Amino acid sequence: MAVITMIEAQKRSGRYNVYIDGAYAFPVSESVLIDFRLFKGMEVDQELKAQLVDADNVSKAYNRALDYLSNQLRTEKEVHDKLVTLEIPEPTIDATFKKLRELHLLDDAHYAASYVRTMMHTGDKGPRVIRQHLRQKGVGEKLIDDALLLYTPEDRLTVGTAVAQKLAKRYHRQAFGTQQQKIRQGLMSRGFNNDEIGQMLESLDLTPDVDQQHELLVKQGEKVWHRYRTLSPSERKYKTKQVLYRKGFQLDDISQWLADLGESAE
C-alpha cells in the first residue's frame, strides 16, 4: 500500500504538494487536506487518490467561481459559461454547482428578484425588457414570473411616467404629434405595454403650446415649400401638406398656414 511520506506547502497560500513513497504525487488545496484528514504516514490506494484529485479539481473550480461571484450577483448560466471558458469539465462543474447551491451562493430566484428591485428603484425599464434580460441570463420563466410580481402596476406607472416626462422634455421642440409618438415609442422600447403607456401619457396631461407649434410649422413649412418649388402649384401644395402631416402637424394648422401663403386651402 502506498503511503504519504510528505506534505509540503506551496508558495501559493492554501495549496500543498503531496508526496507518496518519496515521490511527488499530486497537489491539493487546504480544504481537501482538511476534509480528507491527510497526514504523513497515511495509506493511499488508487481509489482514494482518484477521489483526492477529483476533490482538488472541484476545489479549484469552486475558487474560480467565487472569484467570478465576488463583484456582483450571477446566474447559474453565467457561472457555468465562465467555468466552461476555463476548460473545466462538466462533471467537475456539476460537483462545483452542488457545493455553491448548498451554500446559497447560486440562486437564480434571488438574482431575478434583486434585478427587478434594482430596475424598479434605479432603472427605466418595463416588464418586457426586464424579462428579456433575465432570459438572456438563463433564468427560468417561472422564476421570472415570480420576480415580476414585485413590480406592481403602481410601481410601473411611477417609473414609466418619470421616463415619459424626460422624453417630453427631450422632444418638446418637435411637432406635438411627433412628440407624442416619440414618447410612446420610447416607452414601448423600454418594455412597457400599450395600456400602461396610455395611462402614462394621460398622467402627463400634455397640451400643445400654440405659439410654439405655429413657429415650428412655419419654420419647417417654409423649408418644405421651398424644396418643392419646381412642382405645379397643386402638387407643391399636396407634397408640402403630406410632409408636414408626417412630421406630426395637424391638417387644419397646415391648411391654414398654406392659406396664409396665399394658396387656397381645401
UniProtKB/TrEMBL annotation:
Where does it live in the cell? Cytoplasm
The residues covered by the RecX first three-helical domain are 61-100
Question: Where would I find the RecX second three-helical domain in this sequence?
Answer: 107-148
The record's listing under Pfam families reads: RecX_HTH1, RecX_HTH2, RecX_HTH3
Annotated RecX third three-helical domain ranges read: 161-199, 211-258
| UniProt keyword terms in alphabetical order | Cytoplasm
Q: What InterPro entries does this protein map onto?
A: RecX_HTH_1st, RecX_HTH_2nd, RecX_HTH_3rd, Regulatory_RecX, WH-like_DNA-bd_sf
Q: Mostly located where?
A: cytoplasm
Top-rank taxon of the source lineage equals Bacteria
**Record family assignment:** Belongs to the RecX family.
Query: What does the record give as the function of this protein?
Result: Modulates RecA activity.
Q: Which HAMAP family match?
A: RecX
Q: What is this protein called?
A: Regulatory protein RecX
Organism for this UniProt entry: Levilactobacillus lanxiensis
Q: Taxonomically, what lineage is the organism?
A: Bacteria, Bacillati, Bacillota, Bacilli, Lactobacillales
This chain is encoded by the gene named recX
